[in-house]
């Protein structure tokens, strides 16, 4: 499942955006799986990450 590219609102700095591949799983306790391409990054809420695969680096 992919989302369309969004346009910045008036007054915001224009940044290049890419489509992010993601899928939502679960019913009572939902989680999202995000597929990052090389060089892409994701920002999440502190304490919200369930797991990550080997080779992923956290800053």
Textual characterization of the structure:
The protein has 59 residues and is mostly beta strands. The chain has no helices and two strands. A hairpin with a 5-residue loop joins β1 and β2 (31-35). The chain is globular and about 35 Å long. The protein starts with 20 loop residues before the first strand and ends in a 24-residue tail after the last strand.
Residue stretches low in confidence (pLDDT < 50, at least 5 long) are none
Roughly what is the average pLDDT, rounded to an integer?
75
Provide the spatial order of strands within the biggest beta sheet: 1-2
Given the C-alpha coordinates, what overall shape results?
globular
Termini Cα gap: 27 Å
Counted beta strands: 2
For the biggest sheet, the summary is:
2 strands, antiparallel
Which bin fits the share of residues in helices? Answer: under 10%
What is the strand content? 15-25%
Classification by helices and strands:
mainly beta
Return Rg in Å.
14 Å
Q: Give me the number of helical elements.
A: 0
SSE order, one letter for each helix or strand: EE
Features:
mainly beta, 59 residues, two-stranded antiparallel ribbon
Lay out the secondary structure:
Elements: E1 21-25, E2 31-35
Gist?
With 59 residues, this protein is mainly β.
């Amino acid at each position: 499942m992919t989302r369309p590219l969004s346009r910045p609102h008036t007054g915001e700095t224009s940044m290049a955006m890419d489509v992010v591949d993601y899928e939502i799983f679960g019913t009572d306790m939902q989680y999202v799986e995000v597929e990052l391409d090389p060089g892409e990054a994701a920002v999440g809420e502190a304490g919200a990450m369930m797991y990550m695969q080997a080779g992923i680096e956290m800053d």
